[in-house]
Every structure is written in C-alpha cells, then in structure tokens.
Amino acid sequence: MMKVKIWGCRGSLPAPGPENNFYGGNTSCVQVSDGETCLVLDAGSGIQRLGRFLDQDVRQIHIFLTHLHIDHTMGLGFFLPLYNPNVEVHLWGPSTSDTPLLQRLRKYFSPPLFPVRLGDLPNHPIIHELSDDQIQIGSFAIHSEFVCHPGPTLGFRISHGDTVLAYIPDHEVRLGSNDFPNDPEWTSGYEIAKKADLLLHDGAYTIAEYEEKAGWGHSAVQDTIEFASMCKVKHLGIFHHEPNNTDSRLDEILAERLAGKELDFSVEMCREGAEYIFDT
Amino acid sequence: MPAQPLELILGRQFIDTISLPAFLVDTEGNLLFYNESAETVFGLKFGETGGMRVEEWATIFTPYNEKGELISPEGLPLVQTLQTKKPTSGSFFIKNMQGRDEHIQVTAFPIIARPDRFLGAMAIFWTLDE
C-alpha cells in the first residue's frame, strides 16, 4: 500500500491564519509511506508537525529535498526524529558541479540561521546526492530528474508496484518546454509525471500573474492543468499556493480555470492534511 | 520516446531564441535541433526534417576545405568536441541542400550537466562571405 499525506503545500513562505485554514499555511512537505518505510518529500515548515505525529515504530526516515530554497528546508531543524538517537535519517538532495550537499546543508545548520549544527545531532544524517538517478528504498522505486527551476532542482517519480506518485512542487513548465504543451519529448518534467496516478505540481500563479513573473521558476494553474493533460495523469493536486492566496481565492482560481472544461482526470487544489491511499 | 534531459531542453530553448545559426546534437552526434537561422544556411526546414541521425545529416552537407578537399568527420569541430568533450573552433565550406556553397566558421562546445553528465554538444556558426 502506498499512503501519501500532505503536511504542507504552501509556497515561498508559511501563511498561517484563519483565512487559510482549509488549504493550510505550511510550506512543502509530503509523507509517502508503506508500513514502516517512510519517505518525506521536502522539509518545509510542514515537516515539524509530521515529526510530532510520526509513527513511533519508524526507525529509518528518508528525506528527499527537491532543492534547497528556504521554503523546502526551513522545517528541517524542527524535525524531532533528527534528535532521536534511535532513528536514522537519510537526506537526499540535488547535486551541483561544485559544492557538496553536506556543505550546502551546513549553511542552514549553523549560526546565525540556526543554533544547532549537524554535528551536534545524536546521529549525523546520512547525506546522498542525486541527479538524474534511479534508487530503491524498501518497496519504493524512486526516479529523480532535474527540472526547470532556478538552481539545481529535482522532481521525483515514486513507484510502488504499478502505482506512481509524481512530485514536482517547484517547476516552470512553460520555460522548460519547446512547444508547450504539444511536445512531451521536449518538456521538462515529462519523464517524472507521465501517466502518474497522482501528480503534485506547482501551480503558484494565475496566467496574468505568470506573465509578470516569468523566469521566477513557477507555473500558472492553466499551464499545470495542460501539463497534467499532456502527461495523461489520473489525478492532479495543484501545489505551491502563493502565501497571499486565501482559501476562497484558491477556490476561485481553480473554478475559473475549470469552467467549461472537460478533462479526463480529476483536479484539486492541494490541501494540508489530505491523504491519498493506493492499494497496490 | 523518452523525454530529453532538462539541459538539452533549455539548450534548444536558447538557440531557438537567438539569431545566430546554431544546432544541437546528442552524444552520438545525432542532430536534435537547428534554429531558424541555421535553416537558411542549410537550405532545410527543421519542421520538415525533424531530428536526424548522424549518418543522415552528415551526408546532407558536404564539408570541404579551401583547396576543395573533402573533410573527414573527424576533422569537423563538432565531431572533435564530441570526442574530446572540449570546445573546438574551425572554418570550412559546405555545399548546402540548395547547391549553394557556404563558407562557415563553427564554434562547438560540449554540454556537460550537473554534476558531470555529458549530454551532447551545441554548435554556433556564421557565414564568412557576407
């Protein structure tokens, strides 16, 4: 069984507040589990609650960082299992040409940004670098690929049997495509998302906002829906909600985009606390 | 067909937007894309040919030197770049698909992605007789 739980789907900055209660205010964090095998996608502010409510039997956790922008790493130091000597934490993240991932993570785990250093933890996390790779953890096959976003940024395709979760929370699909949305072979992220049962994908902007922010690394909801359609996914969860977008505004944006459209897959705005369970 | 790596997609995006003639090949030398300005030099439209295998496109344009002698594939900057993974530059003549002789200068450089993935090469060129 593959269980997917959203612990944070806000982009850029946590956005707590009553106007955001339904979709939630925590930044990127998704738990993927099968029994005691626990994968965590990104370590945004949502990972703090995940750490509090994690099954106490879990002894090994694999955290996959798509990239090191602050909204994807800010919760790491507050993840309780890092302070539990009985838990082994593996940190996977994108490689670069020059600076090792460990060195880049140390920038966060050091004053003045954070008082605790990686070396102060009871178990030093085990660091792994990824580029376009394929790995296996328990019953999960994980494929990583670089996608179009400023700085080294990965997308993850997680397969469990025949079931596929695709996770591309920060992705400017229009900039990474040569004839969008007509040429899958030349579209960033296609290999990650194709025929996924569940695609969690960046949809930070309206199309009007995107036109003012092209090159910032994010997608318009309209483009995200077209990308999902091109990839023939079964369900799309739109991710990376802008901090200023309230629950009602997010509902409005999606309703506007879906008006009069007939899609052969389901679409929703991702919601903190949502669970997707796949019997594989 | 599997999608191309991000770096080749962005490479294609880049040359698609510039007015210098340019083309993109994979590690085997297969032609993945050439831009509008290159279409003029080659006398071919990418929309009509699409990508071409190396044995196909290498025979379309006959490269020769200033003495009129044919240049072997190993003598071409792009092929040298693919073999050495280093930038290469050179000038020679080609007879294009419309039978027109073009004197061109070519600079080829490898596309090496993070952390050390060799994906192909890009060649930018211009005609010398204009």
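The two ends of chain A are 5 Å apart (CA to CA).
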